[in-house]
Amino acid sequence: MIKAIPSGLSQLLKCHLQFQDVLRVESLLFVNSLDLMDHKCNNKHIRNALYDKRRISPRGKAFWNNNFIDIDWQRAWLLPYRFCINNKIKQVHIKILHNIYVTNSYLSKFLDIENICTFCNNEIESISHLFYQCSFSMNLWTKIERYVLCKTNISVKIDYKSVIVYFEHKNDKINFIVNLFILYGKFHIHKCRVLKIIPNFSRFSLEFVDYIKTLNFINTSKSNKTVDIYNELFEEE
Fold first, then answer.
1. N or C: which end of the chain has fewer CB within 10 A?
2. Nearest one of 83, 100, 104, 44 to 184, comparing CA atoms
């Protein structure tokens, strides 16, 4: 067993034992006047320090600002936290905002795969194409629009900005529930891409109804609000 120890490691241990009683003076590293070894110097403190020094801005912010005007970024970042949804759904939204959602276009730079869309097999699979511009994704959004119109007699338009950032409507309840539909719709598209199947409104609808049923067993302000609005708009005759 002893002979199996590499000679370099053995020599290192000998040196450590030989000089372990020597007093070592280590220089202290401070981040905004706070010792790096202090438990208060957490990730949040370090990030805030870097942000204050260099004004770090998320990479997706500049990218989407070139595509849309007047984005309320605080609203965009906080949108998924308005709802009682799991972290996987939140992650898809946040990755899109950061412009780091991994598509075939990105993977093709490092792997030997085609950069074309998983659904249509025709166009380059960018984030914009996958979640909005692809005809199969567009079909899902169109059917959600028709579903809302049929159930509420209120016309909504789920456009490019609505899918990527957030949906806006003067009716607060419609605004709430359609944003939830879109978050779930983006997660549905994500799952379909992983499974290599086409987005389907019937499947999406069944998944969403199951989600609403699950919320009935969760007694929180977010879950109760979601159930109440959904039942008012879509369940009552």
1. C
2. 83
Q: Using the 8-state DSSP alphabet, how is residue 77 labeled?
A: H
- Give the global pTM: 0.79
Residue-range definition of the domain harbouring residue 46: 6-54
pLDDT tens for the chain, 237 residues: list them: 556 667 766 666 666 555 555 555 455 677 777 777 777 878 888 878 777 666 667 889 999 999 999 999 999 999 999 999 999 999 999 999 999 999 999 999 898 989 999 999 999 999 999 999 999 999 999 999 999 999 999 999 999 999 999 999 999 999 999 999 999 999 999 999 999 999 999 999 999 999 999 999 999 999 999 999 999 998 754
75 and 102 fall within a common domain:
yes
Give the Cα separation of 116 and 65 in Å (integer).
Answer: 25
Residues 39 and 88 in one domain: no
CB atoms within 10 A of CB 190: 21
Q: Are residues 153 and 231 in the same domain?
A: yes
Q: Is residue 195 part of a domain?
A: yes
Number of domains in the chain: 2
Q: Which of helix, strand or coil describes residue 67?
A: coil
